[in-house]
Amino acid sequence: MEIHLRNLFFTLSLLVSIQVIGQQREIEKLGSTMELINTFYVDTVNNKKLVDEAIVKMLEELDPHSVYIPAKDVKKANEPLVGNFEGVGIQFNILKDTILVVATISGGPSEKVGLMAGDKIVMIDEENSAGVGFTNRDVVNRLRGDKGTKVTVGIKRKGSAKLIDFTITRDKIPLFSVDASYMATPTTGYIKINRFAAKTVMEFNEALEKLRAQGLENLILDLQGNGGGYLNAAFDLADQFAGANELIVYTQGRRSPKQILKATSAGVFEKGKLIVLVNESSASASEIVAGAVQDLDRGIVIGRQTFGKGLVQKPFKLNDGSMIRLTIAKYYTPSGRCIQRPYEEGKREYYKDIRNRLKKGELMSMDSIDFPDSLSYLTSNGRKVFGGGGIMPDIFVPLDTNEISDYYTKVVRKGILNQFVLSYLDHNRDDLKAAHVDLQHYKENFSSEKILTEFVAYAEKEGVEKNEEDLKRSSNLMGVQLKALIARNLWNSSAYFEIFNDINPSVQEALKVMDSKMFKQMKIAYK
Predict the structure, then answer these.
(1) Residue 68 predicted with pLDDT over 80
(2) CATH superfamily, with its number, for domain 84-174
(3) Which one is catalytic: 282, 284, 494, 506?
(4) Active-site choice (236, 295, 353, 394)
(5) 6-37 pLDDT, tens per residue?
(6) Maximum distance among all alpha carbons in the chain?
(7) Is 295 a catalytic residue?
(8) Which one of 181, 309, 322, 483 is the catalytic residue?
(9) CATH homologous superfamily for 178-397?
(10) pLDDT tens by residue, 339-379
(11) CA of 8: how far to CAs of 13, 18, 474, 516, in Å?
């Protein structure tokens, strides 16, 4: 017995040694190649460029989400997740070659010095910035900068004959995760989250408390279009809905031990009806939350099958300040479903998946999606759910294209909807503010019929011809969208969703389900 064990140990040690030697040889092979190029190649080479491109190609062979980030881009790449950047704190758009302030960020440096929505930035640090072909990137490069540095802008403001100069001291600017929060009915609140960042759960809890003060008992959580973010943020959000010690998610990889994340007793919304909205662009962290809510029978998931991004990336810094985000594990829902969909056909085909699903009709009909029994799993209460990549909702809402016409597609692609709204507000902002004391008054009294006529005339000047048949098909969609865009510019992003959600099929379906017996029929825990 002892001899057998000794032989087995020797064999395993030999195999490990052979594997390590093999790895060393491959690494030495890369080094030898670089040495040969530098010694004998006909021309001088850029070693940094060669190495960077080699790393990019190597990572592409692994999976679609392992990426290389050059040193100069690391800070920018981390901004959406860290939750802030350094700059002047405005939302802007370029209208007729002029930088237009759409909004100032609350508490930011621009608001503090007196910049206002509707101001036109025509000078930056004594250089003309109007009519010189500035792009969005140019504006960002001029206005962003390190905290404490200063930038001077010349403002053209309606009602003022002279330019107004403002010196703005740059500061940390928050990037908010919660796009909208409002009461959709007297008892049902709506919260939309756009990403999972460092402060997402704090923002969510603040929004929830404000809605509770207004009578919230039930919640619609909108994760449509949410591409993900931090695993910890996803866990923390799911923890708000789950009971103590309930499994939320686990991760596992070849060199990463199984990590199990269970809910704490600190959830702020463990009772009350919960609906989670998802679509084909909901990914990663969004899928963790939706998968946990579904598997634990805590709420109902409504919408379309999610993206299927279930790979865990860990950042590794390299010696020159660059970074590799390397996939180290996979996400699994409480029932054991792997969220990640297949990617064996390569990165290009992987990112064509939504287009392919559209062609197959999978965004239009649930019957077009094939779910083999081998991929079936059971929720806590024994409901059947399916794996194979992404989260399939409990209630399918098809992609609505009934109001999409060629005319609508053209004005959206050319950005004419947004351009018109900015132009309209440039002339009517003060009158609109005077006419509507608050958003509720605006919702009830602003008619989009007149503005739609003005928009069609504006679009013709911008090269999109009037088409009566298309307008008949898309007039309601465009009217609501224009009304919502104006509201966003007059108030905030939450105002946009409060208006546009009146024609959002998934939101409307959620409101119907809230008032139905569906929760009891599906054995969903909410009391």
Answers:
(1) yes
(2) PDZ domain (2.30.42.10)
(3) 284
(4) 295
(5) 444 444 354 444 454 556 777 788 778 888 88
(6) 98
(7) yes
(8) 309
(9) 2-enoyl-CoA Hydratase; Chain A, domain 1 (3.90.226.10)
(10) 999 988 888 888 888 888 888 888 988 888 877 777 899 99
(11) 9, 15, 73, 64
